[in-house]
Amino acid sequence: MNNVRRIIGLTGGIATGKTTVSRYLGDTYHLPIFDADIYAREAVNRNSPILTAIFNRYGSSVILGEGELNRQALGDIIFNDSQEKLWLESQIHPYVRHQFEEAIQESESSTIILVIPLLFESNLTHLVTEIWVVSCPYDQQIKRLMTRNNLTEEQAIIRINSQLPLSQKIAAADVVLENDSTLDTLYQQIDQSLINDNIKSLRRQA
Questions:
Q1: Are 145 and 14 in contact (CB under 8 A)?
Q2: What's the CA gap between 67 and 15, in Å, rounded?
């Protein structure tokens, strides 16, 4: 590996397999993994200012017992209203961005992984030195999301279509991991990509 610090931005479509990839990188290579989804959940912890703002905006329809967030109900709102989705992102994204900036500054590892599903949508590409996109066929993505989140096909399609098209993410990627076969095939792609010292990133050189 060269002496240049690698900050890998791991992204892709919803339910394409980002968690599988990040878990493998952490378990096999012991790389630090910093995950936007974890930070986003922290942002709406009970009694947090962001959660209070959400409750004030949407009321009891998004509140579970004991002041917890009803994520399914909130998802139904924001994935059917682009303006509400933008509002929610304006609350959560600054917190997530700050957490990433702190993690990058504090980590001493020469290679770190930032798992950012909305890497492009939230304009965080400047944080990374290379972009890895996890991809799978559209039909497979729908089925995985339906199974994982217990959604109808219509709900799954709405959530997928709320993100930047996967084809656009692939076009901007330094590495594309095709998650349409076996786990071993996916892991082989990860291994090859990680040891490739010749990846040329333009993210911080523009």
A1: yes
A2: 28
Alpha-carbon distances, residue 157 vs 80, 108, 190 (angstroms): 11, 40, 28
Where does residue 190 rank: exposed (0-12), middle (13-18), buried (19+ CB within 10 A)? buried
pLDDT per residue as tens digits for the range 139-167: 999 999 999 999 999 999 999 999 999 99
* Residue the block writes with tokens 């994204």: 93
What are residue 150's phi and psi, to 5 degrees?
55, 55
The two structure tokens encoding residue 17: 């397999």
User: Tokens 């497979």 identify what position?
Assistant: 140
Distance separating alpha carbons of residues 23 and 112, to the nearest angstrom = 13
Q: Are 113 and 32 in contact (CB under 8 A)?
A: yes
Rounded alpha-carbon distances, angstroms, from residue 38 to 33, 34, 42, 44, 176: 11, 8, 6, 10, 23
DSSP E strand boundaries for the chain: 6-12, 33-35, 111-115, 130-135, 175-178
What's the pTM?
0.90
